[in-house]
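Loading example: each entry is read as two labelled lines plus one structure line.
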Amino acid sequence: MDFLAGSNGSLLSQLAGQPCGAAPISCLFKECLDLFDQLVLCSDAQYSVRRDALESQAKKLRTWGNDARAFTWELDRALRKSSRLQQEVLMLLKCLWNCLQQS
Amino acid sequence: MGGPSIKMEAFTTPEEETTLPDARPVAEIPTPGLDTIISSDATDIIGNYLHCLLALVPALRYPTPQDTYQEDGLKKDEGKDLALALLMFEKATPCFIRRVGHANWKRRLFQRRLSEKLAQIRESKAGTFSAGPPSFSVPDRGRPSQQTTNLSNQPPAQFPTKKPNQSEGALLSENSSISGIPSSTPGTIFTHQSVNARFSTISSVVSDAKPTGNRHVLPDPPVPLHSTEEFLCPYCLQELTMGQDIECLKDWEYHVFSDLEPYMCTYDNCILAEKTFGVKDEWFRHELDDHRIDNIWFCQSCLVEFNDSAKLADHLKDVHAYPQGQELAIVVSLCQRRSRAPVLNQSCAICHFIYSNAEDLKSHVADHFEQLSLTSINLEDDAIDEADCCQPDGGSPENEEKKRRLESFLSDLRENAFAKEHEIDGEDRDVSTSSESGLLPGSSDDASFGHGHDFAALPSPKSGRRRGPAEVQVEAWHAKVERYLEEQAKNFYDAPESDIASLRSYDVMSESMVEPLGSMETLRSIRTMPPTRNQAFVGRESDFDKLHNNLSNHGSICVLSGTGGIGKSATAIEYTYKFEREYDYIFWIQAETPVSCAYSFGHIATHLGLDGDEVVRHQERLVMLTHEFLERTGKRWLLVFDNVDDLSALQRFLPSKLLETRGSILLTTRNATLLPQNIDHTLVELGILALEDCRRLLLTSTGENPKDMRTHPEYKLAGDIAIYAGRLPLALSHIAGYLAQSGCSLEDFVELWQERLHHTDLHASAKDSSFLNSTEKALEIMWNIGLREVTIDAKELLHILAFLDSDTIQKDLLVDEHEDHNLEFLHSSEKFRFELPFLVFGNLSSTFSC
């Protein structure tokens, strides 16, 4: 698999305007965070339970990003020699992105 | 979101829409509202993905380089890199050569990938170049900025080798004329380097090392150094701005080497032997901490050091009559620390050259690694063969011997690889085929995932309901993540026990520094809650004489007073160790509040077993039992009340018939008039440290222990610094700690101090010129200097620690599964990250109570 494009190339190509080439995980992670934020904003206030759940999950993702250093390109850099792990993280984020996108 | 219609077959990847059998047809229906769509199932699935991601955090923090690149169908041509490593590191062990050769092969392959990617970007940007000024420069790898607009594919550069009888200067001038870029920075790796001079004949950076012949040099930055252009780093494709990200050649050198990650542990049996480091200091810190600095075990009573825990155990049994048992093992483990002896006469694992100090060794070994790593960007694949042939004395017997050794080495490697391959085939065929194939749950072979794995720790799917494709996919991911973590754990536990022990020694150290309670109570005198002895304590001899003269009388009370930071607690602690043999019991009482006093008294009762077999939970009862013991015992005891602010809060803890007991009381307080005149006591007021003691403290902190300080070249400077710090022990101990940690010379420190003093004065004049007295100013300057060096997270941690009792901060109180964004850096998954701040600030926090 190509390290920079690979199987996720089609997805990354959707993320127009983002310099994803060197930091695909960071890029995808930020997309997911944005989607979470949009979901939280759009959620109906009367269903506060689900809104809380969403906010809680958004926090978890933010925590993960902080822990794994995905906010910057540091994680991409750290994983550049561990392509298997990198692919797995990318695919997990991709699935999450799909989930959020289709919501 | 909120669009007019949605797809009902949510939560499948685009690929699955056509392949999964149970994917429902796409139906366009009006959007029923967000909450219908964000169903609990969906949030569960999202939660499961997040769970998987969070489970991977430890692996992501320290990923093991394990890439084989095999799935690309690339020929595994690491033989060339192994050969190169063997030629460059002749005297290294075969295991070491295999490691660095393999790492270099991966490095070269990775750089090749980036090179291809860069070529694609260059092609896509070609139109931009012709249309107008580019948004950022896209450099040609390893070529100077003058050539960045040349987008044609150029043939690989030829690597000039030193011509026979050609002088070094001649070659350099020739190369300089080729590059057209003057090399003007003295003392760096760029000195006399040119872009096209891939091989040069510059002598070794480490002048006293054996010259190594041909050397590789670092390519110049793609854009001129003094410009403000943006460019893509050819070695990581990161977008950089000259003048901001890269300000000087040193920055560029640092950046490139952090991309190439040249450094590796030189110890073959290290658990991190395969890890590559991008930062020289990080790599060498690992070598020092894990391999080069010894652990020692020391007796806290007589300060004798042992290089073996068993010897300390024997010592405690023989000399201090300590009984054999589990407690002995605990005490021995708590008496472990790093040796403070300087690291001397260390040898280079690559060329066996011996260096007298660690700094020189670091530079020397780092240079070996850097040279090899530069081949990954300076030499193309075919050129490596040339490099093999470029060795001097082409047909000499020495070269023949090298070739023979190389062939033998490669042959052994091939045999080992063959054997390993067959072993894997025989035992783990199923596992290897599923894990190595790189199949992902979204692919058509998903059925191979999710069987035989325990999902107990994960949210279970709802029973009695047919699982949707998304749930199947999530479960498959669980399995995959579990398997990955299992493999990582297996690798970890397969490592030699000694390596794991060395990693775990951090835990032991941090525990003993953060929670020093109860670690030494079983030595000569019985102690409760004793603070750790400050090994760097100096001076106060006359004060000790006064204290001892008074406290040696039964029923005496001594008050040790002085301003904050003068060293009251430190002096009291030192006294308890210095005159330990005078007492049978030494009890340390945290006397800031009645609650802390009661806790300390309760601890005495529990520790001495005064409560018998009954479980006494009433603290008053424990306090009373302790009082009774102090009044009745026929043995000598010392009660130290530390940091007393209010006598009224203390009264109920003072033994009522002190004169009839065999005890003495020592109080430390800022208030010299704490005890009224009608209570018989002796006041010892502490002043600033003697200048000579200040000098000794500072000079010993730099790792030296001069017999005659006056002949020390930095003797005068030490005096100057002591005067700057107002001879205040707190400020001096911080300075000494900073000097010891940073390796900064006293001369550099004076310069640093003057700079911060100027800054503080400016700051003060902007506010109120009289807001700081000289002592406070000294402390502020010292804190500013120290705080500049710590990370943002460590600063945050300090802010929190400032609100806690500095003597008994419990790590478990801080570290948790925090979800608050502000506390994320204290999340339990950050464990390894904040061990260091705890270690560093363990020393600082002990001085807070002074």
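Chain B touches chain A through 67 residues (CB under 8 Å).
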